[in-house]
Amino acid sequence: MYKITILGSGRVGTALATALREAGHHVTVPDRSPDAAAEAARTAQIVINATPGAGSLERLTALHDALREKILIDVSNATLDGTDGLPAALLYPGSSLAEQLQQALPHTHVVKTLNTMLYSVMTAPAALTQPPTVFLSGDDAKAKQVVTELLTDLGWDQHWITDLGGIETARATEAAILFVPHIIRSNGFTPFAVSIAR
């Protein structure tokens, strides 16, 4: 059992909090105030960033001390939205939110995952008609092993988990967000995930 703090109380954060509590973890979802977030992060072993990606870097950089030596799981995508509110461009072209976070928080173990699917698939991957793939990007092998354990708790089969390598590989999975508006316009908010067929 891990002590987990989830930053963000929208659909993503709420779904992850519910599923991780059901798996037996101690989960805290603080309110949006900086003091509450800092205290919750300081007492956690793992912090999950489920805040809107466009503001994540500023918000988490402010928690620099509280996040020291923590595992930070980043599930957000930093995008510029179009007129319809859907992602239209990357906020960090040639980089990624995860890379920016790791650079700003050098003493935090950032792991990117769960950002290539509709939020409902994060906690119910087996509900899809085909096996989905979830990707890991991060520089710390031990941190990625812990995240793999959490993914298993969320219902992800070991064969569906692909470690892409260092944090720089997150720019590839974050770029996949540009598929999303077209998929949604074509099929609506039907659960989907990027999947690697082998």
Description:
- The chain is an alpha/beta fold.
- It has a single domain (3-187), classed as Rossmann fold, CATH 3.40.50.720.
- It has 8 helices and 9 strands.
- The protein has helices at residues 11-22, 34-42, 53-61, 97-104, 119-122, 141-153, 170-175, 180-187; strands at residues 3-7, 26-28, 46-49, 71-74, 79-81, 87-90, 109-112, 134-138, 161-165.
- The strands form 2 sheets. A 7-stranded mixed beta sheet has the order 2-1-3-4-7-8-9, sandwiched between helices. Strands 5-6 form a two-stranded antiparallel sheet.
- Strand 1 (3-7), helix 1 and strand 2 (26-28) form a beta-alpha-beta unit.
- It is globular.
The CATH architecture: 3-Layer(aba) Sandwich
Question: What's the assembly state of these chains?
Answer: single chain
Radius of gyration: 16 Å
Question: SSE order in H/E notation?
Answer: EHEHEHEEEHEHEHEHH
CATH class: Alpha Beta
Query: Count of helices?
Result: 8
Task: Briefly summarize what is shown.
Helices cover 35% and strands 19% of the residues. It has 198 residues and is of the alpha/beta class. The strands form two sheets. It has a seven-stranded mixed β-sheet with strand order 2-1-3-4-7-8-9, sandwiched between helices. Strands 5-6 form a two-stranded antiparallel sheet.
